[in-house]
Known about the structure:
The complex is a heterodimer. Chain A is an alpha/beta fold. Chain A is built from twelve helices and twelve strands. In chain A, the strands form two sheets. An eight-stranded mixed β-sheet of chain A has the order 6-7-8-3-9-10-12-11, with helices on both faces. The radius of gyration of chain A is 21 Å and the shape is elongated. The model of chain A is unreliable at 333-345 (pLDDT under 50). In chain B, the strands form two sheets. Chain B has an eight-stranded mixed β-sheet with strand order 6-7-8-3-9-10-12-11, with helices on both faces. In chain B, strands 2-1-4-5 form a four-stranded antiparallel β-sheet. Chains A and B meet through helix 5, helix 6, helix 7, helix 8 and helix 9 of A and helix 7, helix 8 and helix 12 of B. The complex binds iron/sulfur cluster (SF4) (2 copies).
Amino acid sequence: MSDPLLVxxxxxxxxxxxxxxVRAVDGVSFSVDRGETVCVVGESGSGKTxxxxxxxxxxxSPPGEVVGGTIRFDGRDLRRLSESELESVRGNRIAHxxxxxxxxxxxxxxxxxxIREAVTLHRDVSTSEARARAVxxxxxxxxxxxxxxxxxxxxxxxxxMKQRVVIAMxxxxxxxxxxxxxxTTALDVTIQMQILRLLRDVQAEFDTALLLITHxxxxxxxxxxxxxxxxxxKVMEEADVYELFDSPSHPYTRALLDCLPxxxxxxxxxGGRLPDPTDPPDxxxxxxxxxxxxxxxRTGDQPPMVPAGDADHTVSCVYYQPGYDESVVTNGRxxxxxxxxxxxx
Amino acid sequence: MADDVxxxxxxxxxxxxxxxxxxxxxxxxxxSTDTDSTDFADPAGPVDPLLRVRNLTKHYPITEGLLxxxxxxVRAVDGIDFEVRxxxxxxxxxxxxxxxSTAATSLLRLEEPTAGEVRFxxxxxxxxxxxxxxxxxxxxxxxxxxxxxxxxxxxxxxxxVAEPLVVHGMTDGERRERIVRGVLERVGxxxxxxxxxxxxxxxxxxxxxxxARGLVVDPSLVVADEPVSALDVSIQAxxxxxxxxxxxxxxxxxxxxxxxxxxxxxxxxxxxxxxxGEIVETAPTDELFEDPQHPYTRALLGSIPxxxxxxxxxxxxxxxxxxxxxxxxxxxxxxxxxxxVIQPDGYEFEQSVWRGVMDLRVxxxxxxxxxxxxxETAAEADGxxxxxxxxxxxxxxxxxxxxxxxxxxxxxAERVLSDAMSALVDGxxxxxxxxxxxxFGTVCETVDPPLDAxxxxxxxxxxxxxxxxxxxxxxxEGRAD
Lengths: 345, 481
Ligand code: SF4
Ligand code: SF4
């Protein structure tokens, strides 16, 4: 058993704003194994994007700052690295792919030039070798006529093709970890599926771990091995992907699944709003919107992550603590739950 | 339902909305010599749908040089028909670039359509003069475009919502305020929100204000462009059910433009699916989702990732990109990507292999096939100079690129394909293209399928549903011009 590639513990990232300090990521822990796909899912304001950016100090600072926790990547704590040491990790061993491919591409250079840059930054190769590698990468991410298109400029590619180019660029250094933040959100649905399959294929081929950040539970179901559900800067639930969809345990996860449009019985919105990020409430962050909230939910800290059913399935909710009856939470309306199944406590 | 026009339904929120409706009506009456729309009513009156669009077309010329000579046309919307009845929500769905938003803006004459008829409450919108157009703009409201940029940050919510009333000539400030507060409550905000500023509101609340601003002038048609695509899922459901509620309470006709099929399914009574400027299928919502008849609709539905990991990998994957709307494919516009594209007579292919052959044919036709490229790629993969590759290796590389097997199951088809491959290896792209085209022709690339009834009861434009007309006798040829 080898150690996980990435272990994040108690990560805390804050932003100083006029209205106070926003605790965007507030004590988040999770890990990613080599070659594994972990999805961080949440709505805007959940802290999922900031979590991904915090790993390699991409959080704009000021106003943002990682103020606590450890980010152990392949045995080293990234928080303790100097800027130049981190530089050699970023883009090299950890690569990022974002929502809008045009942000990652420079309009004045051909895509081949940009991929070559990425290749030569991380490896000492001749120009012609770098070019061959660029062609090879474009070919592998499914760009037809790669050896011709390598000389084209970003504007000559469609949105879906641009995202392929960005993925090729990210893969140039054969990173151990690819962090992809909403990589398909800006794309049409038929193109989205192409990119998701591509991510899955290249991940298998390059044996890269993938941390995919998304709001879309459909995307999660399509690619994840494991899922981390975030809400208001905290992790609410973590589970194997099948486990999460078959027996969602946290009231927030259950509510999230219930509000997907087109799921038969009619979508149900989650009433209420995210708590004020500058002044989060005591107790469980979800309590103001939770249909099951009791007094214990409103005091103290966010409930600790405790097992729910499977050993690898953990939940931050008082109902899974000793002395509570978790069926109160799981008997409500859920996707696969008719209430007949008793989850073992 | 057709009788519920004009907010005649009893209000369930204390009459505030009702007040808004009546007062806004009288606002326009005080406006000018404006007459009531019934004066213009079509003889067909009651059976006329609220909105009927025929052959709506919007082309954008591509010009060149100082004299702006027209060298081509982007066929954004290319002759579409649909209607919206009172009290009905109709969805127009498709991917970006399919023309759905252009359809909306041209039917509202926010930009002038190139051709077509738009009948609204029995009148021809395309013939409206400026005064009539102004009145039309009150009766047909576009709501929900980008909520963040559509509000003046210095105006209170109340002022923003009241603005259309001012524009349409309501001078009585107190009355405006009363109407605004009423309509805010109708969209689930509080009357006191009138005094707040846009930056104090969440995305979902801004969408509510956007809707309030559309409703304040008592329209009979609301065009909602991507109403929830900028919102989190937990808020989407809330806004969609609000749209449903006000649609019913006000007896509105709603045209909903969206790329998101799940959204459309949630609120629409009927749906029209667009691809490259044309409607390819139209059906009652349940029927469309349960029994889609057009391969594009099936692909769209099939490519939505389901929130169910047990079904992962089962999604349909379309190959290729949407073609350029200034040069749409001949025949059925979807034939360059259609997974179900019809096979040529006399041969038997596995369907996915046939799709691969079509991909090759499409590429040869596009002039973007270059055998040197294939050689180079293969040479790189093998680590040998391109000149040393055997012809067999190059042919194999071409097959690989298009996911074609080393040998087709059908001997006759294989003979054609290997002929074409030899030609390709010799650099004779044109010969290869011809060889494939003459043997492997399909009706899908020659005849534009009309929107016709299918066995499912609704309409789709696809040759799979019925005998195509004679090739060459394409009914739609030259129509766009
Ligand atoms: S801890 Fe309480 S408020 Fe939080 S999810 Fe559980 S029941 Fe709901
Ligand atoms: S006409 Fe042919 S190409 Fe077009 S959708 Fe039908 S089967 Fe596909």
